[in-house]
Amino acid sequence: MAHAARWSAVVFVLLCFLGAAESRRNVKCPSGCTCSKETLICVGASQIPRTIPTEINSLSVVNGSVAEITEGMFALMPSLQLLLLNSNSLTAIKDDAFSGLSHLEYLFIERNKIDTITKNAFRGLRTLTHLSLANNKIRFLPRDLFFDLDSLLELDLRGNSFQCTCENKWLMMWLKNTNASVSDVFCAGPSDMKGKRLNDLPIPPGECISTDFVRHQSIPIQSMSADIFSFKEDIFVALAAPNSNSCVIMEWDHIEMNFRKFDNITGKSVVGCKSFLIENHVLIIVTQLFGGSHIYKFDEQQNKFTKFQTIEVFNISKPNDMEVFQMDGNWYFLIVDSSKAGMSTLYKWTDLPDRNETGFYSYQFLHEWFRDTDAEIVEVDGKFYLVLASRSQSPVIYLWNKSTLKFILHSDIPNVDDVVSVKAFRVEGELFLALACYIGDSKVIKWVNKQFTEVQALPSRGAMILQPFTFADRHYLALGSDYSFTQIHLWDTETKTFHKFKDIYVQSPRSFTVVTTDRRSFIFSSSLKGKSMVFEHVFVDLSL
Ligand SMILES: *[C@@H]1O[C@H](CO)[C@@H](O)[C@H](O)[C@H]1NC(C)=O
Ligand SMILES: *[C@@H]1O[C@H](CO)[C@@H](O)[C@H](O)[C@H]1NC(C)=O
Ligand SMILES: *[C@@H]1O[C@H](CO)[C@@H](O)[C@H](O)[C@H]1NC(C)=O
Ligand SMILES: *[C@@H]1O[C@H](CO)[C@@H](O)[C@H](O)[C@H]1NC(C)=O
Ligand SMILES: *[C@@H]1O[C@H](CO)[C@@H](O)[C@H](O)[C@H]1NC(C)=O
Ligand SMILES: *[C@@H]1O[C@H](CO)[C@@H](O)[C@H](O)[C@H]1NC(C)=O
């Protein structure tokens, strides 16, 4: 209050002086304004004078309709020490608005409609001691706005609409540290902050950090799945591309920071393309709807993949997905069969050179008469469970019997139908499954007391994938959609459920796969009908 009273007094004295005195010298006073020896006042003006007599050191333009201050508007008035623009119609103060005012000490812009002030608006005002922006419509101020105000003694920001959010975090810190006296400033929002004093809000650092997914690369290849693998410090992706009848291998270019073509395994109706490293060799299993399924091996001399083995597909009719895993030191993979006429089949790696048997051989046939869609292997307390999802029944769980070395049917997951993908993940040590349903509700379920219970349902509109992934302690779930945006959900550590976080657009997404390289994190999304996309996971500082 005291500061405001003092400032008003300054203005009052000024006005009285002007009213009483006539200009004694024959100076050129702008029309519509009143000039005295050192002061000039324009009441009700619509513009700011372009030039003023040189001996004037205070300029007031009050109760007018001045709507903007343009850059350098006061450049021809270097002698000004006081500038008062109260009760006009200003809505913004832009960069370098006061350039050239190298002796300005008092600046009053009160009772206008200012809602925008740009970062360099007060640049160069090194002698300014008093600044008032009281009674405007300011919600946010840009960081370092007051950087040049080395001499500031008093600042009045009352009567504005400050939002006490991350964007104003810097202002709260600045208010705490400044040596200038500042009038009390209150938060106008958000609702939980309303009425609190901006000057002494404790904002813990880190609270204003969020993340985002930014488009990084789009790849003109339609793909069913994307499998990431690394070999000798290089990162590759194997894309199952049914429309171009191939399994496309791309390599991460560490200089260009994107994926470029590396090799192309051609086939017929390729639906799966899955890599694994075995005894320092990269192998890729390529499943096809027609023409059988094959394993390719990376030939370092030729720098390309060459055929290594044709696998038996006795009981496979319509391969849908593949899962590669290791149990008790042995390598297996499972081809999930989505036809009633076929059977999901487990293959085991065998290395018997004397018998001319080095490769994968069918080992166990599972689940007759069901249209399986996806499989996931989970290890709980040293036991291996295989979760097999199916369109024609609830997901079933097989348990690996360590004495017979076969999977035996163990249980099912009731009340979830028509599951198209199943993915396991852990949060804070607990095991969850993410089950995607095409239309209806996709589910997040949790392993409690040796069975799965529902945690959350996520409405799905054309979802073929519900993919969990984690970056920097943040757990996400990407729910793909054929009809709309893919929704990324973020785990909330307090409610222990996922909340909608962000939408990204991928046409007919089929997989989301994490790529971490060069200290950056990406998510690779395959698209069955459009371009495959790479999104970067970035941190965003919400404070301006
Ligand atoms: C300010 O301007 C308004 C109209 O624009 C007028 O009605 C009012 O009398 C003026 N006030 C002073 C003190 O000049
Ligand atoms: C405030 O004044 C003290 C003492 O003169 C000085 O050390 C400090 O840097 C000043 N702080 C700011 C933010 O100018
Ligand atoms: C892979 O090679 C086949 C045959 O040469 C070609 O038709 C197809 O377009 C290629 N795919 C890509 C993605 O380059
Ligand atoms: C699976 O394939 C094997 C090998 O051809 C065959 O002996 C067996 O009968 C098949 N099983 C079923 C259920 O079709
Ligand atoms: C192993 O298989 C290859 C190709 O099928 C054949 O040429 C070779 O004679 C076989 N060797 C033995 C020991 O059976
Ligand atoms: C594994 O199979 C053996 C032999 O059939 C059986 O006795 C045993 O109970 C099975 N173990 C489990 C955990 O089901």
Explained architecture:
The protein has helices at 2-20, 169-177, and strands spanning 33-35, 39-43, 58-62, 82-84, 92-93, 106-108, 116-117, 130-132, 154-156, 181-182, 209-219, 225-231, 234-241, 246-253, 258-266, 270-278, 281-288, 293-299, 304-311, 319-327, 330-337, 344-352, 357-366, 372-380, 383-390, 396-401, 406-412, 419-427, 430-437, 439-448, 451-461, 466-471, 474-479, 486-492, 497-504, 509-517, 520-527, 532-541. By secondary structure, it is mostly beta strands. Among the domains are: 1-206, Leucine-rich repeat, LRR (right-handed beta-alpha superhelix), CATH 3.80.10.10; 207-220 and 425-544, Kelch-type beta propeller (Neuraminidase), CATH 2.120.10. Strands 1-2-3-4-6-8-9-10 form an 8-stranded mixed sheet, with helices on one face. β22 and β23 (357-366) form a beta hairpin. The two termini are 30 Å apart. The relative contact order is 0.07. Bound molecules: 2-acetamido-2-deoxy-beta-D-glucopyranose (6 copies). Residues 43-44, 63 line the site of one 2-acetamido-2-deoxy-beta-D-glucopyranose.
Question: What are the salient characteristics of this protein?
Answer:
544 residues, Leucine-rich repeat, LRR (right-handed beta-alpha superhelix), eight-stranded mixed β-sheet, 5% helix, four-stranded antiparallel β-sheet, mainly beta, Neuraminidase, binds 2-acetamido-2-deoxy-beta-D-glucopyranose
The helix/strand class is mainly beta
Unreliable stretches (pLDDT < 50, length at least 5) are: 4-27
**Overall number of strands:** 38
Overall residue-averaged pLDDT value: 91
- Kindly report the spatial arrangement of strands forming the biggest sheet: 1-2-3-4-6-8-9-10
Helix content: under 10%
| Distance linking N and C termini | 30 Å
Which value, in Å, is the CA radius of gyration? 35 Å
What best-fitting shape do the alpha-carbon axes yield?
elongated
**Number of helical segments with 4 or more residues:** 2
CATH architectural type of the domain at 1-206: Alpha-Beta Horseshoe
CATH C-level label of the domain at 1-206: Alpha Beta
Stated plainly, the CATH topology of the domain at 1-206 is called Leucine-rich repeat, LRR (right-handed beta-alpha superhelix)
The amount of beta strand, in percent, is over 45%
Bound molecules: 2-acetamido-2-deoxy-beta-D-glucopyranose
CATH superfamily of the domain at 1-206: Ribonuclease Inhibitor
